[in-house]
Amino acid sequence: MSKDDVLLRVDHLVKHFPIMQGIIISKQVGAVRAVDDISFDIRRGETLGLVGESGCGKSTTGRTILQLYRPTSGHVYYNDVDLTTLKGSALRPMRAKMQMIFQDPYASLNPRMTVGEIVGEPLVVHKWGGTREINQRVDELLTQVGLNPAFANRYPHEFSGGQRQRIGVARSLALKPDLIVCDEPISALDVSIQAQVVNLLEDLQDQLGLTYLFIAHDLSMVRHISDRVAVMYLGILAELADRAELYLNPLHPYTQALLSAVPIPDPVAEEKRARIILEGDVPSPANPPSGCHFRTRCPIAQPLCAEQKPEWRELRPDHFVACHFAT
Predict the structure, then answer these.
(1) How many whole angstroms separate alpha carbon 26 and alpha carbon 266?
(2) DSSP letter at 246?
(3) What is the pLDDT of residues 126-162, one digit of tens each?
(4) CATH topology classification for 6-97+177-321
(5) Taking Cα atoms as reference points, which of 32, 30, 35 lies closest to residue 15?
(6) pTM for the whole thing?
(7) Which residues pair with 43 in a beta bridge?
(8) Rounded to 5 degrees, what are φ and ψ at 180?
(9) pLDDT of the residue at 327
(10) What is the pLDDT of residue 266?
(11) Which has the higher per-residue pLDDT, 296 or 4?
(12) pLDDT score for 270
């Protein structure tokens, strides 16, 4: 794959949520720095895994890329079109090309709508065709995700969690997008069902040439599905590399700590390896540490880490890291 064949480019993306105080006269007294200056790209047809602890800004990143949240600053380029400059009718055609699979299949489906109405809603909104064409497309989509088209008249509460997530996948495919943001699509499912949904996503990628941003906190599943993996901590990217390179040779202390917690199905190897225990709690995104955000928990932190933000640099070919002392 050509390195220049980039579908999506995120350039210094920032998303801060204001903290307001006062009832009658409300004023901003601070900001939650959910996404704090991150840059990466996603190549056409690949899966980029985005991992990190809960609350680190992964889901906000995905929603800001799709312009569900408007960024505080920075740019998001889709096929060299800057989405951050588009609004209203200019942004609507781009939304058809970028879709999202939400985390909770129980909350993301409208309980008052039938499955056919849920899957067909994007087609209606974008005036895709008449009723007959839309119904045919809905039947095709349900078949594609492994559901019986006869279920189209049923309601979400009549399905299991895995089936509901398949409905969510079908809805995301309705407008034939190129990019799908998968926001922890398997975290609310049983382990046996997780594998089925991941296999479905991989099959659909092969059939349709889809590009995924796969957000998750399960490092073993991310390793299975992703081509490259980005590690996020408190609103920033700590490391980004090819999955094999990242798992075999992590350079950032945070990535090393995360990977040391992944279980190994080999009792001998598990007993021999050293576990890295991070001390303290994750700082508040409303008041992150100066310099390196990870320095308050980092085992190799030095005074420089408090004074200067580490540069996002390519230490090895296609292996990026934000750490003063990574070598």
Answers:
(1) 57
(2) H
(3) 988 889 999 999 999 999 999 999 999 999 999 998 9
(4) Rossmann fold (3.40.50)
(5) 35
(6) 0.91
(7) 6
(8) -125, 125
(9) 83
(10) 67
(11) 296
(12) 62
Return the beta strands (E) in the chain as ranges: 6-21, 27-43, 47-51, 73-78, 81-82, 98-101, 179-183, 211-216, 228-233, 236-242, 313-316, 319-321
* CA distance linking residue 64 with residue 33, whole number of Å: 13
With H, G, I as helix, E, B as strand and everything else as coil, classify residue 256. helix
141-145, 178-182, 261-265, 298-302 — which is least confidently predicted?
Answer: 261-265
| Residue closest to 172 by CA, chosen among 223, 114, 218, 103 | 103
Contacts of 90 (CB under 8 A, 6+ apart): none
* Partners of residue 51 on adjacent β-strands: 216, 231
Asked if 275 contacts 257 with a C-beta cutoff of 8 angstroms, the reply is: no
- CB-based burial, 256-278: b 16+ in 10 Å, e otherwise: bbbbeeeeeeeeeeeeeeeeeeb
**SS3 of 78, please?**
strand
Whose CA is closest to 39, among 298, 320, 317, 326? Answer: 320
Tens digits of per-residue pLDDT, 47-89? Answer: 999 999 888 999 999 999 999 999 999 999 999 899 999 988 8
Report the C-alpha dihedral over residues 168, 141, 51, 86, rounded to 10 degrees.
-90
Q: Hey, which residues does 212 pair with through a beta bridge?
A: 47, 180
Q: Is the pLDDT of residue 2 over 60?
A: no
User: 60 with 32: CB under 8 angstroms?
Assistant: no
Which position has the token pair 């998750």? Answer: 216
Where does the pLDDT of residue 1 fall: very low under 50, low under 70, confident under 90, or very high at 90 and above?
Answer: very low
Beta bridge partners of 35: 15
CA distance 35 to 237: 9
Domain positions in the chain: 6-97+177-321, 108-176
Contact call for residues 204 and 173 (beta carbons, < 8 A): yes
Question: Residue 222 pairs with which residues in a beta bridge?
Answer: none
DSSP string for 203-243: HHHHHH--EEEEEES-HHHHHHH-SEEEEEETTEEEEEEEH
Residue 187, classed as helix, strand or coil, is coil
